[in-house]
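Exercise 7b. Backbone tokens:
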């Protein structure tokens, strides 16, 4: 009766690399009992995802369990055959991976892929299976399940794709669910609904959850116990709230210190209200034609301005229209109504050379530092690509500019000849920022540019963005679902819901005295908000 569902003992994981063996996990031991939620916290590269991969025996080909053991329901998985592991995966141990783009098959509908998980383990098929899939889609908060069942991953938003993965992980009602950053790409309200559902699952079915996250506040709010990992080792473990409020290890204290919150000090200085306006968005909307002749407005009647040298943020949940608005400003989506002017010029009428000139003034930084860089290009080629496309300078001057940009984003010049896979997530995002700055733009559009990063790297990138803004007088349109981050970096904030702006103001105005119910709902859903003042 007292035997844990999962028992990890003295676990070591080694990867064989060209430079020799690398110990990714060292001497880790912990238990997870039925119905318990245990969170594993640490920055990128700490070994937390590698540890999770050991449980399901899904390590990369060059990785191996070099010492210790993993026991699930009394069975030693360390020496289990692949056939035995196939029976355990999904039915005994469910998995919700982090990246929805690389874990959903673009050639099959979302409904088919969830149904396949049921069929493989003999849980349901045919009409019964389809009904179960619809239940799962509704359970994780996907609207119109019958319509969405027939759609492909590219027709889902990023948040909806992640919810589909969660439905897949829960499909076979596993005894243990490994959730590897399951909500890092989701806005706070959807995140709360998903995690509420996981808690409900735990209490109703006695399912255990191993939650992998870089968000210490979320871990403390949602887990019974927290394990803190640093450089492959378990440096602290214990009661979730105690670790948040009284961290013992220096690394844990650093995580707590750098976690963004609504009481974090703003990184930006107050701007003059009379600053010249760089970009104006007036009454803008974007309409899509759906199957059956239906119309869908992703954004409607959007109006705001971006003064020179300031940061204007748009916050809202997945599907609120914030990324669509960003894409219209970048010229990547057509404007269905209204106008967007950059430097007084209406961008919707621009063609040819005039459009190319506008693109030099407005540059993007996207969310995923792993997907936004071409894996075949060296870092120097990646940063220099905009210069080549726009025929700026010669080879020597472009090389000089690349080195200058590496200096600006605080990367060593030695990375110039490296490939993206040789860099960490934070370094890759610095490369993406350097590429965006190559053409010396006036405006940089950052679409969830720090949401995939752990708190320490996130803090470094935010400070970098603020330093670059001061140095280069840059303007930013900052798209985010993280209100705590927005509070730190913004001069003005616009809250979007269902395609419209519902409230605007300074961070202090919006977050200290919100007027709309929706803004109050967003604030209440911030991880750790319920723990403030807790002991």
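Sequence design result:
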């Amino acid at each position: 009766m007292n035997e844990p569902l999962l028992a990890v003992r003295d676990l070591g994981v080694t990867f064989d690399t060209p430079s020799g063996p690398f110990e990714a996990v060292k001497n880790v031991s912990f238990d997870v009992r039925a119905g318990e939620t245990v969170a594993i916290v640490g920055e990128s590269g700490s070994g937390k995802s590698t540890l999770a991969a050991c449980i399901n025996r899904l390590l990369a080909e060059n990785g191996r369990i070099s010492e210790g053991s993993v026991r699930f329901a009394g069975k030693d998985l360390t020496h289990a055959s692949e056939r035995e592991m196939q029976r355990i995966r999904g039915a005994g141990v469910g998995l919700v991976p982090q990246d929805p783009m690389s874990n959903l098959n673009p050639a099959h509908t979302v409904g088919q892929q969830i149904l396949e998980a049921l069929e493989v383990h003999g849980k349901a098929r045919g009409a019964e299976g389809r009904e179960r899939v619809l239940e799962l889609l509704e359970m994780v908060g996907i609207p119109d399940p019958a319509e969405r069942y027939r759609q492909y991953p590219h027709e889902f938003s990023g948040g909806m794709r992640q919810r589909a993965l969660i439905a897949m992980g829960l499909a076979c009602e596993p005894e243990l669910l490994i959730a590897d950053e399951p909500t890092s790409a989701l806005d706070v309200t959807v995140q709360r609904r998903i995690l509420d559902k996981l808690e409900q699952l735990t209490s109703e079915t006695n399912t255990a959850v191993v939650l992998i996250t870089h968000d210490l506040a979320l871990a403390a709010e949602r887990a019974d116990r927290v394990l803190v990992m640093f450089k492959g080792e378990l440096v602290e473990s214990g009661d979730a709230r105690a670790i948040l409020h009284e961290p013992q290890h220096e690394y844990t204290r650093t995580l707590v210190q750098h976690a963004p919150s609504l009481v974090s000090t703003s990184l930006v200085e107050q701007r003059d209200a009379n600053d010249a306006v760089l970009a104006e968005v007036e009454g803008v909307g974007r309409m899509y034609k759906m199957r059956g002749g239906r119309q869908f407005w992703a954004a409607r009647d959007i109006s705001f301005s971006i003064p020179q040298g300031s940061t204007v943020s748009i916050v809202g949940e997945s599907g609120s229209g914030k990324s669509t608005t960003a894409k219209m400003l970048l010229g990547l989506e057509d404007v269905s109504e209204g106008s967007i002017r950059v430097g007084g010029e209406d961008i919707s009428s621009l063609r040819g050379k005039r459009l190319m000139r506008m693109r030099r003034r407005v540059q993007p930084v996207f969310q995923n530092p792993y997907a936004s860089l071409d894996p075949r290009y060296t870092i120097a080629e990646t940063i220099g690509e905009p210069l080549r496309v726009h025929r700026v300078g010669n080879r020597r001057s472009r090389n000089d500019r690349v080195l200058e940009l590496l200096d600006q984003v605080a990367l060593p010049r030695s990375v110039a000849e490296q490939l993206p896979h040789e860099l960490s997530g934070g370094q890759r995002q610095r490369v993406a920022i350097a590429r965006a700055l190559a053409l010396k733009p006036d405006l940089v559009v950052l679409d969830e540019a720090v949401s995939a990063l752990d708190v320490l790297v996130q803090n470094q990138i935010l400070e970098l963005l603020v330093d670059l803004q001061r140095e280069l007088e840059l303007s930013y349109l900052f798209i985010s679902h993280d209100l705590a981050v927005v509070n730190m970096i913004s001069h003005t904030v616009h809250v979007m819901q269902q395609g419209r702006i519902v409230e605007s103001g300074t961070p202090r105005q919006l977050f200290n005295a919100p007027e709309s119910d929706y803004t109050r709902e967003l604030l209440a859903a911030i991880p750790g908000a319920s723990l403030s003042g807790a002991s």
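Instructor comment: The mean pLDDT is 88. The longest strand covers residues 20-32.
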